[in-house]
Structures are given as structure tokens and as C-alpha cells.
Amino acid sequence: MHRASSQNRLILGDNREVLSRLLKRDRGRFRLAYLDPPFNTGRRFDEYDDRASPETWTAQLADTLNALLPLVREDGAIAVEIDDTELGALVVLMDQLLGRAQRISVITIVRSAATGHKAINRGPVNVADYLLVYAKDRARFAPNALVVPREGLDPAYSTYVSDPSLKTPVFSPLAREVASRQGFASALAARRSLGPDAFLREVERFALGHSEHVVRFAQPRFEAIGKRAREVVLRSRAAPEKVMRLARPGYKDFIVRGGNRMLFLADKVRAIAGEPRVVEPLTNVWDDIGFQGIANEGGVRFVRNKKPERLLERVLELCTNQGDWVIDPFVGSGTTAAVAHKLGRRWVGIEREPTVFERAHERLERVVAGQDSTGISARVEWTGGGAFEAVGRSP
């Protein structure tokens, strides 16, 4: 058993009872409450019974949420993962308990492909879970801005500018610039010699390596920009070869040529694993987190509804910062606690089934000891450390 001033706790017991006991000590402490409740699939698994009437399922989850809400910070969030079985009931319930205005997003999580036995079913193949994210108080909720890599280069970024400072710029087609640097007379000659796909890869590679020189032009929505910006656009239309710039303190400069806004590829490029990648803002469709191959993550096998560490990593990075508290009242195999520990968050996990609790306990022992190399460990360079207390566990 680990005990430390960190106060991380893995607690054995019914979550509604445990949450009530936590009120005196932990009211308003948690930046994020993440729930992965039974989905009410009508099946019985080795780890738990997932069969209840819709009314019973809703009532029990309502009790858990009501007990949980006072523990969440006013600037915190509640995220609940579910499949489509009880999705409608869950949206109605959370709208009632927190208010529809507090609903931040309903995120679609693509967890599998339309292959195997699923593909023989008539009708749409079910491949998704859903993550409902609600704020305790939307006015105070401030999620972190996350980006995700995208494959390929937006073809609209097709112009090369010789001088990124735009003091003496010369504009030319990006493909022609790449072809010239490789000794070809034209982009057409390069495509014919290298093949279309190979030349496209060369263009993408060059663009990523010279992203401060690569731009696209976009027509601004005239009614959506401010008066000063509209004035710049009008002047630019009258002098289409001239680059005009409107400085905007706290924001990117508004740069216009020929009445069109100029956007630099460099603003969309980030270094990921040491390589430049084009990124885009996180959307409410997450199709880049694989659920395959996670059976042995954390050294815990869990037949149904085990979640990838990468998924919890994204949820925590979206809603919390280092040092924040996270609570999971359906901790199951311990994924939330393991990821929170590796990311420098503080945590409380609750599990009612003794055998499942023991699996989570063993997993977290390995995390603390630096013996867990699975999941996000390599990416976050986890080597162990910290501590937790196992509450309610028999010696």
C-alpha cells in the first residue's frame, strides 16, 4: 500500500456512498470528473453485470451525478462516455442536472472499423462511442486549445513567397519552386519524370520544411470582419499587387493581397516526435485514437469497455492542467488514474467490485514503480514516481 501527501486515492466501495463521504474533505476540489459507467448493453460480463431496466440505469446514474457535482470546481467539467444504447437518456439527464447551456460538446469517438462480424449486419455498422462534456459553469470553463496532426497538405497552400517578412516579396507557384530546385524546367516536367504521387510527396516535404515561405489566399467574409479590416480589403482590391498589413495587438496581423487574406502554412505546423506536421484544431469527431491492441495496456485485461490511455490523455489535456485533481467514480481497470498519474494530475478513483479493484490496484502499483511501459508511458517519458493510497482494501 502506498501512502503519501499527494493524497491520490483508489477507493473500494459503492460510488454514491463514497462520494457522499468525500464531501467534507473534497468539496469543490476536482477540475474534471470523468465517468465511464456501464453502458446498459443487456449483457453480463465477467467483471460486472450490464443489465438494468432503462429507468433503473437512469436513476442510479442520476444519484451518482448528484453526489458528484458538489465535488467539481466551479470552473471544472464533467465528461461521461457512453455508446448509443443510453445516449439519448444520458443527454436528457445531464441537461436536467447541469442545464442545457452547460453542454460543451457531444464528441464522437470512432473505436472500430466496419469489418469482421459487424459488417454483416443490416443497416449502419456501429463503430462509435460518445463523450458528453458539460461545464459546471460555462462562463468559467476554459479548456485548453488542442491540435491534432492531419495527413497530407491542404492544396490551397499552393503559393511560395520569397521573403516571409513581405518587405520585398516575390510570389510564385509552390509546385514550380519545388520543381526548379530539383532541376526541372517546370512542375509538369517534374510530375512526368517522378510520377504524380512522388512529386506530390516532394512538394509536401518541401512545404513542411519551408512553411514560413508557403501561403494560401482566402477571401474574407466582409460582414464578419471589423471596420478597419474592411478598409484594408477595399484598398487592397484597388492595388492588387501590393501587400497590405493591419496590425492587431494580441492577434495575428491581418495581411491582404488582391483583396484576399494571406495565411502562412507555418501557423499550422508543429513539431511532433521531432518532425514537422500540419495540424488542425481538435474537432468533435475523434477518429485518430486506436482501440485495437490495448488488451495488455497497464498489464490489465478487461473484456468490455477498457479505454485506451491515449483517449484519457486527450480528455485530461483538454480539461485539466498539471496539478489539477481528477475523479473517476467508475475507475474499472484504472486507466483514468494511470493516465492522470503519468501526466502529473492528482486523482481519486472509485470501484465497487473487489476483483476489479485489485486489478486497478496492481496496475497503479506498477505505474508508481516505473514498471509500466505501455500506453502513453514512452511518449511522456514516464519512469515512475509518486504515490497513492488504497482505501478499503483488505491487508
What is the element layout, followed by pairings?
Layout: E1 9-12, H1 15-26, E2 30-35, E3 43-44, E4 49-50, H2 54-68, E5 72-82, H3 87-98, E6 103-110, E7 128-135, E8 147-149, E9 159-161, E10 171-173, H4 174-181, H5 187-194, H6 196-209, E11 214-218, H7 227-238, E12 243-246, E13 254-257, E14 260-264, E15 269-272, E16 275-281, E17 285-286, H8 309-319, E18 325-328, H9 335-342, E19 346-351, H10 354-369, E20 389-391
Parallel strand pairs: 1-19, 1-20, 2-5, 2-18, 6-17, 18-19
Antiparallel strand pairs: 3-4, 5-7, 6-7, 8-16, 9-10, 9-11, 11-14, 12-13, 13-14, 15-16
Helix pairs in contact: 1-2, 2-3, 4-5, 4-6, 5-6, 8-9, 9-10
How is this structure best described in words?
- This protein has 395 residues and is α/β, with parallel strands linked by helices.
- It has two domains: 247 residues, Vaccinia Virus protein VP39 (Rossmann fold); 123 residues, no CATH class.
- The protein is 29% helix and 24% strand.
- It has ten helices and 20 strands.
- The strands form four sheets. It has a nine-stranded mixed β-sheet with strand order 17-6-7-5-2-18-19-1-20, with helices on both faces. It has a six-stranded antiparallel β-sheet with strand order 10-9-11-14-13-12.
- Strand 13 and strand 14 form a beta hairpin.
- Helix 1 runs parallel beside helix 2 and helix 4 crosses helix 5.
- The longest helix is centred in the C-terminal third of the chain and has 16 residues.
- The radius of gyration is 26 Å and the shape is elongated.
- The protein starts with 8 loop residues before the first strand and ends with a strand.
